[in-house]
Amino acid sequence: MSFLNNAAAKQSVRLLRHELKRGELTIVFLALVLAVATVFSLTGFSNQIKSALIIQSSSFIAADRVLETSRKIDPLIIQKSTTLNLQHVQQIVMSSMVFAANDDQKADPSTMLLASLTATSDLYPLRGELLVSTTAEQLVNKQSQLVHAPNKNEVWVDKKVLTNLKVKLGEHLEIGIKKFVIAGVIQQLPDNSFSIFSAGPKIILNITDIYATDLIQPASRIGYKYLFAGDNKDIEQFSTWIKPQLNNTQRFYGIKSRQNALAKVLNRAEKYLSLASMLGIVLAAVAVAVGARRYSHRHQVNVAVFKAMGASRAYVSNLYLLHWSLLSIAGILVGLIAGYFIQFFGLLAMAEYLPNTVTNNLIEPLFIAIVTGLICAVAFAISPLIELFNTSPLAVVRSVKQTKPKLISWQQVPAFSALLGLLMMFSGDWKLSLILLASGLIIVVILLLFARLMMSLGRGVGSKAGQAWQLALANLKRNASENSVQLVSFTIAIQLLLLLLVVRNELLADWQAQLPETAANRFLINISKSQVDEVKKFTQQNNLVASAVYPVIPGRLTAVNNEKISNVNDPSVAQNSSQKSSLKESTLKENAIKENSAVDNNKANITRRGIGRELNLTWQDLLPEKNKLIAGKWWQASDSNAQVSIEEKLAQRLDIKLGDKLTFQLGSDIFDVEVTSIRTVNWQSMQPNFYMIFNQQVLQDFPATFIASLFVPELQQQKFSSFIAKYPTITVLDVDAMINQLRKVIKQVSIAIEFILILVVLAGSLVLVAQVQATMEERQRNLAILRTLGARGVLLRNSVLYEFIALGVMAGFLASCAMEVAVYFLQTKVFAMAASFHFKFWLLGMGSGGLFVGLIGLFSCWRLLTKTALHRHVV
Amino acid sequence: MNIKSETILKVNKLSKSVTLDDKQLTILHPLDLEVNSAETLAIVGSSGSGKTTLLSLLAGLDLPSSGEVYLKEQPLHQFNEEQRSQIRAKHVGFIFQQFLLINSLTALENVMLPAELANQKNAKTLALQLLSDVGLSERSDHFPNQLSGGEQQRVAIARAFITQPDVLFADEPTGNLDSQTGEHIADLLFNLNQQFGTTLVLVTHDHKLAHRCQRQIELAAGRLVTATVVEPQTNVVML
Ligand SMILES: Nc1ncnc2c1ncn2[C@@H]1O[C@H](COP(=O)(O)OP(=O)(O)O)[C@@H](O)[C@H]1O
Ligand SMILES: [Mg+2]
Fold it and tell me: I need a labelling partner for A772 at 20 to 30 A (CA). Which of A11, A172, B16, B185 fits?
């Protein structure tokens, strides 16, 4: 390369070599390395985590996406999924009576049972594990093996089927007109948490057998389920393709579109990871920008010397372009290597929580990281470099006129565009990025104003303080414009760190609260009135944490204020409500509202919105735990008028207000009731939850079954089993597996969050260091002058220390204010949490700000403050 | 070497004004000046009298507000920045009060720099020679911050002479040094100057130093106050 042979190139390389060795480029180099490493590891890492989480949690629905419908679907849909390389499973779901079929027992009515049938194609489950005990021995020892759909003529059954039908493994049962061998007992269902709510114990058969049962008749109520799984990209493409063509009878969902505890955890975690990553990028980019500016300023005098000695502008440009490019390339390369190891070790640390199905795809993070590095290296350096090239040779005799940094000016256009580009590339959401950047700019302007104000206020305070303080504050004031820029970058760095810390704590606390140690792991359904007292007695005697026992009475809302509401006979809804028991609605909010909104869209203009299906109604004297009144008043047990408390979201959806009169139909009875309160319900809490709660007066005379949830510790498992064995009609729902999985996911997410927090803290610290360094030359000159004017060493050192401490504390204070605003916004708008105030973190912000910035400042000036060094500088 | 008394610098009605706070401020009033080849000229005057301003105009670092500057018959006042750079590369050397070495280059590399800029082949040999001329052969691998002020200025002097410039501009070369070191530096400077037959334009407020030049002009408040005084005696180098 001829270019490399010329003098500029030689000098450039020489300069770079020495400067790197002498540590003069460390900060800007580190900034670049960190920007690239952060982006690389965060992209790689969070991609991994996201897909790991999704794969793992997809086992809650045994697939990536499910299409549920009451009719057969267009074969085109299956075709499309196949062309997209998706795997699919077809299922037919229905309820049916099944009979023990061991020769002579056939007519005995005690040997029949209403079971929930799932006829599935072979690949089920596509995600998660179906565990079955296939031998009597395994069954006794609670061992199991991994299986898919049963073979032809065989079934997997719930244990309850064996006890209720008095049959054994290997014996027969009859479904419809076909006889099956009981080939296994289900120990774990991958889509347990959802399907278990269906009526009766579960029986899984092969879909090729279902027609032979003769159960599929034109009038029979059956549901079709299509499970899909595949690469994320293909799944997304499939989803986009299918969504517009869905009709009322079809529901298409993935794990995250379900309103359940896990979905919420996942959504929040994902948002947090993206947010943290974006903030990490912003911080690293700011560090590069600050570093580049300092780089340019430091080299200005050299450029002036070069030019005075006759170097042309082209020569200087070549020299420094090469210099900067080499530096950037080195930074990017080192960043990539560092990033690779960071994400590698991060994943290693989490290995036990990650399923090994996740493939390590590094192409995307690699690409994003390189582009990030290039954007940082080019966009943030462009205006400082141009300024550098334009340095006048006159600067050799006159001190270099350093342009004051202006945060808001046209020069920053490339930098801001770059930031926007980075955010967009990372989030894939231009609107969010633009909002982030715009609000960032507004915050910067406000902060600048505040910074000026605080520094002038500081002076007044200072005059009453000691000499060193006076000097420190006078310095702050004198360099107000420079310092306010510095203050703003300190503030932003501290604010972003506080922000992430606070949100992290809130998230973890929220998750913790959601799943306390004693979160209910058993639901008891179908408790009869006479059994209620027995159940209560049992829980009391054994000190078990249990929910209240709720009566459940199915009923229909027919009118609001005498205005009839639409009860669209949507087949999918009808099927849902008839097949699934009360708990389905109550514990996991389910999609009642969503289903309904689809219906609403069509019918809204005709009649008032309705629910379209039966609701599970209950009555209570007291407001249930984890429910919060947001309007109205809870009733007295003694109130004799008919009252109902309605869940907030449903009230909004149906446009129901306090004082409205609701008409319900329960069987043939029709009655009116007044809305006296509106509640929020934590649908994620492991307890029965209800849309409508009445006072006892209204419902006490209707026949009800009861439900309750309770926590049974490992040690009392045995006792609980023997208790429950006495009441075969009570259905027990074991959600231990689901809770454990949820805990595992939360653990994963927490680790991921900690990990990313560390990276972001690093980026933030680098901003602080770079910023202190950037103004060091200026400060050195001032110190030298003060020193020659006879100021004492201790005084100078203290004044520097105090100046930085003051800066740090101010920054901490401003950061806390800004953090509080941002957290409020995030909590209420992004994470859908309750807003809160975080005084602790104000102290942390100001304390650590003062300490950290003070220390960096002191260390950076240390050499300068010792006598000999000072002397050297004056000379 | 270059004994012919040709005019190397010629200045006609040269003046410089700057605008400060919307006010026109003349920092150098029109003046005429001629400097002969191999001549040594001292520009004296109190601080703020315009010495550095004049020097930067003569060296083509800055452009005058009016008037003409010819360096080796080239009209600097008509040249743009790039053209003046070329002239400087060919004919001009500098020594500054703050030494202005490149901090991250070694003494040797600093000295080589102008030669490399001028694309001279034997930059390293020349630089080593000059370093030994200024008595710093041992320190050629040291960085400026490892050298004392006097040593740094010696490196700067070596750097100034490496391209054998026609004119050497020195702005207060001893201003940042104690008097003993300053004297030593001055000796070196005049010594090398004589050896290379360079024209020297030296700005100083130190009359002792000024007296070592063949001619002095004095500035006060931007005006030439003393007519040029030609010192009769030749320069005696004292080591
Ligand atoms: N660019 C400028 N803007 C404003 N004033 C200037 C500028 N350059 C020089 N001056 C002023 O002109 C006067 C002469 O400066 P200078 O030539 O540096 O003096 P000297 O070198 O003799 O000390 C000084 O008062 C200085 O402040
Ligand atoms: Mg001067």
Answer: A11
Domain coordinates of chain A in residue numbers?
Answer: 6-55+264-513+743-874, 66-231, 522-734
Q: What is the pLDDT of residues B172-217, one digit of tens each?
A: 998 888 888 888 889 988 988 888 889 999 998 888 889 999 999 9
In the structure encoding, which two tokens stand for residue A381, read together?
A: 């350096």
Residue whose token pair is 């610098």: B9
Query: What string of DSSP letters covers A534-566?
Result: HHHHHHHHTT-EE-PPEEEEEEEEEEETTEEB-
Angle at CA of residue A257, ends A251 and A258, nearest 5°:
85
How many angstroms separate the alpha carbon of residue B54 from the centre of ligand 1? 10
Q: B111 to chain A: nearest residue by CA?
A: A309
Domain architecture of chain B: domains with CATH: 7-229 (3.40.50.300)
How many whole angstroms separate alpha carbon A88 and alpha carbon A95? 23
Q: How confident is the model at residue A93 (pLDDT cuts 50, 70, 90)?
A: confident
- The CA distance from A47 to A52, in Å, is 8
Q: Which of A212-226, A484-498, A824-838, B141-155 is the most confident on average?
A: B141-155
Q: Are strands A705-711 and A545-546 parallel, antiparallel or unpaired?
A: antiparallel
Å from CA of B207 to ligand 2 middle:
15
- What residue in B sits closest to A304 (Cα-Cα)? B100
Instruction: Report which secondary-structure segment, H or E, holds A692.
Output: strand A692-694
Contact A215, A66 (CB under 8 A): no
Please give the pLDDT value at position A575.
Answer: 34
A455: which 2 tokens? 């520094």
In terms of Cβ atoms closer than 10 Å to its own Cβ (0-12, 13-18, 19+), residue A294 is buried
- The DSSP H or E segment spanning A678 is strand A669-681
Tokens representing A370 are 């390189």
Q: What is the pLDDT of residue A465?
A: 59
Closest CA to A590 of A599, A600, A581: A581
Nearest CA to CA, how far is B41 from chain A (Å)? 19
B204: closest CA among B57, B58, B47? B47
pLDDT(A265) > 80: no
Please report which residue ranges of A463-591 form alpha helices under DSSP H: 467-478, 480-514, 529-541, 571-579, 582-587
Dist CA B202 CA A135 (whole Å):
106
In this structure, what DSSP letter does residue A198 have? B
Residue A479 has pLDDT above 70, yes or no: no
State the pLDDT at residue A679.
92
Which residues have CB atoms below 5 A from the ion given as ligand 2? B 52
Reduce the DSSP state of residue A846 to 3 states and report it. helix
Query: Quick one: DSSP state of residue A580?
Result: B
| Strand pairing class (A112-120; A87-100) | antiparallel
Q: Residue A686 in 3-state DSSP?
A: coil
Residues B85, A305: C-beta atoms closer than 8 Å? no
What whole-number distance in Å separates Cα of residue B161 and Cα of residue B173? 14
Could you identify the atom of ligand 1 that is nearest to the CA of residue B51? 22
Residue from A696, A683, A711 nearest A583 by CA: A683
Q: Compute how many other C-beta atoms are within 10 angstroms of the C-beta atom of residue A121.
A: 17
Contact A155, A174 (CB under 8 A): no
Strands B66-71, B7-20: pairing is antiparallel
Distances from the Cα of B151 to the Cαs of A156, A242, B159, in angstroms? 92, 79, 12
Residues with CB under 6 A from ligand 1: B 18, 20, 27, 45, 47-53
In angstroms, rounded to a whole number, what is the distance separating the alpha carbons of residues B44 and B42? Answer: 6
- pLDDT tens readout for residues A376-390: 888 888 888 998 999
pTM above 0.80, yes or no: no
Q: Say yes or no for a CB contact (<8 Å) between A24 and B109.
A: no
